[in-house]
Prior knowledge:
- Helix 3 (62-74) packs antiparallel against helix 10, helix 4 packs across helix 10 and helix 11 (326-345) runs parallel beside helix 13 (413-428).
- This protein is an alpha/beta fold.
- Strand 1 and strand 2 form a beta hairpin.
- The chain is built from 13 helices and 15 strands.
Amino acid sequence: MTNPIPLHSRHRSVLPDWLALYYDRPLELTHGEGRHVWDADGNRYLDFFGGILTTMTAHALPEVTKAVSEQAGRIIHSSTLYLNRPMIELAERVSALSGIPEARVFFTTSGTEANDTALLLATTYRRSNQILAMRNSYHGRSFSTVSITGNRGWSPTSLSPLQTYYVHGAVRTRGPFAHLDDTAFTAAAVADLEDVLGQARGGVAALIAEPVQGVGGFTSPPDGLYGAFREVLDRHGILWISDEVQTGWGRTGEHFWGWQAHAQNGPPDIITFAKGIGNGMSIGGVVARAEVMNCLDSNSISTFGGSPVTMAAGVANLAYLLEHDLQGNARRVGGLLLERLRAIAATVPAVREVRGRGLMAGLELTKPGTDQADPDAATAVLEAARAGGLLLGKGGGHNTSVLRIAPPLSLTVAEAEEGAEILAEALRSLN
């Protein structure tokens, strides 16, 4: 018998108040195919957010659903206490793709858990609880990761097991260095890093940074900034953690990993990943050079990290992405979409900036003629786009005034045009 109480009311009665929902009338998505999803009322939407960048290749991708079904028919769970063929196969592929020499891979169930593990490794290896993080950053919702998140909207407590120092440089067009050209901007950020290290007591464990900030509104520094930081870090023995939860697997189009835009001084010591690799299955993980990964001197397991079913999904999903050159598609279709969005934005005074790489685009909305964030405008466009059949995301510092666009990497040119036209109408409604 169907429960007569509306699903939204049931949600509010049993789930936390702080568990965010999009839209005045929240959506129940029931199924998807390709780049589209359907709600419980039968409405069809072009998905430009992909479950927060998680549906990386396509909804209901046959290769992934087949791999999941076949593995579930054999064995669903065993834990890391037993040899696990799908986990080893995926680890071999990720290790080879990481760019880190002698890489080891540890699987988790989320990006939060991956970053938590990276912090454990770095602080243990360096025997220090001091961490460098970027302003406007987001790294997860666990006790350790909220303590290094440089965005108050996603950091509910000031209590922390870590001492965190925040560095400038991740936001190119705001802040004290915004007026500088790229070379001077990078030099100023490096000088700021040096100054911050002067405040630290003893050896800092690591710098953790998103090559493109996700929740922060798809902001990024000039190419090469983290490579320049690496020169400073190496002098002090400080590790570099690249948080690739949202930038990994070719989403930026130009590179397979976001860190590769900053590669002049070599790869990071640690890479964290999640989201897209599982195409909706719960996969996160850490890649680190063997010396760092093996620094723990106590026993550890992962009960659900590396599950045979999720690993089978990851192997199939990664194979599909590589065989169909979805990184190249992100570069080509994403480039066309960004051009289209910039042309639209030129006619809408509320759009301060269109930014992004590949299929990772952000539109920052402000009150026209000012630099003042306008969260109400972002919400209004989100609602209008939904009414037109398009799902978007939001982000952008604590004011949440950036529209985030991150469709599955198999997006077609026709779908990019369709989504841009719906978004154009939604933006024009602000005028």
